[in-house]
Amino acid sequence: MEKTVSIIGGGLAGCECALFLADHGVKVKLYEIKPIKYTPAHHSESLAELVCSNSLKSNDIYGNACGLLKEEMRILGSSLIKIADQTKVPAGNALAVNREEFSTRVTNLVKSNTNIEVIAKEVTSLDDFDGHLVVATGPLTTDDLAKSIFAVTGQKMFFFDAAAPIISADSIDMESAFVGDRWDKGNGDHINCPMNKEEYEKFLTELLSANRAEQKDFENSSVFEGCMPVEVMASRGVDTLRFGPLKPAGLTDPKTGRWPYACLQLRREDKDGQMYNLVGFQTNLLWGEQKRVFGLIPALKNAEYYRYGVMHKNSYIRSPGILSADFSLIKNDKIFFAGQITGVEGYVESMASGLLVAINILLHFANKPSLELDNTTVLGALSNYIATPSPDFQPMNANFGILKNIEMVKKDKALKKRLQAERSLEVVKEIKKYLDETI
Ligand SMILES: Cc1cc2nc3c(=O)[nH]c(=O)nc-3n(C[C@H](O)[C@H](O)[C@H](O)COP(=O)(O)OP(=O)(O)OC[C@H]3O[C@@H](n4cnc5c(N)ncnc54)[C@H](O)[C@@H]3O)c2cc1C
Q1: Whole-angstrom distance, CA of residue 157 vs CA of residue 139
Q2: What is 163-311's CATH topology?
Q3: How far is the CA of 138 from the centre of ligand 1 (A)?
Q4: Which residues of the chain have pLDDT under 70?
Q5: Distance in Å, CA 318 to ligand 1 centroid
Q6: Hey, what CATH class is 4-160+314-438 in?
């Protein structure tokens, strides 16, 4: 019997998935709304459009989780990373591409593949499909389809208005910070970053004058009202932040025995305490400005950012409880989701989920179970992240904080990352061997 798969969305996840399936003999129908209609961020007729930056982030395999993720994908045979490598432009340690050339090459590869039929159409309902289906319509999924997804998943698509940055625990200057919960109520899951009056005033001045990311019209709509960026809150009055995210009340600094003048709380993000969230610091500042301005808080002067604060319209499924770690619906294992809509965040992460979905569908066709990955690899860590219940589920980038820890006798961050990366690549090579024999 002919193996066929329908994919909705010819973006990064959809194209990666389509090419991998087609190269393994599967017939793919790829539905893409362009060029009939464009979402507010898409402009080009090409598939796999990079809507904003041309950077696929770091290429450092042993020191950066996104670099490691790309290498994992290269080993498994990712078409999009291969094209990114072929279209790269000089950008130091990063893999930046010529965006037009990248999208054009992906489009040509997809359209010249005799196993793929590209259909220009706005899909409005999941009910129109049977058989294996992949939904890869991204953070700007059109409204009618979003309603249909809601009907199938029983879950509202969440708006991700503004997110606070996440930093590495190792990079917090504990000489300037102290551990403790407000009014001593809690389990010590917070690190507090105090500021004196002078430090607070300097911070406020720089925050108010810092450069912000350009807003598109669609990003100014009222849906963002509920989650105010820290710089907007700061503009409402000199002391507004001291009654908001920098409230010192109930936080006694053990060094002084008193509440500080202002204090930022960092909340633990993960079980192992490798990542901390700058609570209430959702922001629209440019990334470099976040590092500069937030670095004026003494405890954050050397902060290393796992995820910068971002602000834009972003629909995604609250995946835990809805999707399995193989990205299929728990209640219908023939319907898969891929890309940013699943709660992975970023270009490469979206491609990676498309690749995993293709692999898992091919395993289904071979009557084998989906890949069961632990958090040793970035691919596994991302897929487990989207399937693991969490009270405050938000999209996640590739980062070392979600990778399985390695206990080190002596603190050596660089060595730890190298060992984590080496371990991951060994596992991915084994997976590749298994897949070569199986699909
Ligand atoms: C404004 C914005 C800027 C971003 N900037 C960056 C960045 O700089 N770096 C980064 O790493 N990540 C960025 N992201 C996040 C994310 O990495 C990208 O959105 C990425 O393109 C997601 O890949 P995807 O395959 O999930 O979705 P997309 O690449 O958006 O692909 C989805 C495709 O589905 C199509 N589609 C939508 N609805 C329908 C429908 N009903 N029927 C048929 N087709 C449909 C769309 O036209 C699109 O081609 C940004 C996101 C947004 C919204």
Answers
A1: 10
A2: Elongation Factor Tu (Ef-tu); domain 3 (2.40.30)
A3: 4
A4: 1, 52, 156-162, 215-227, 271, 312-313
A5: 17
A6: alpha beta
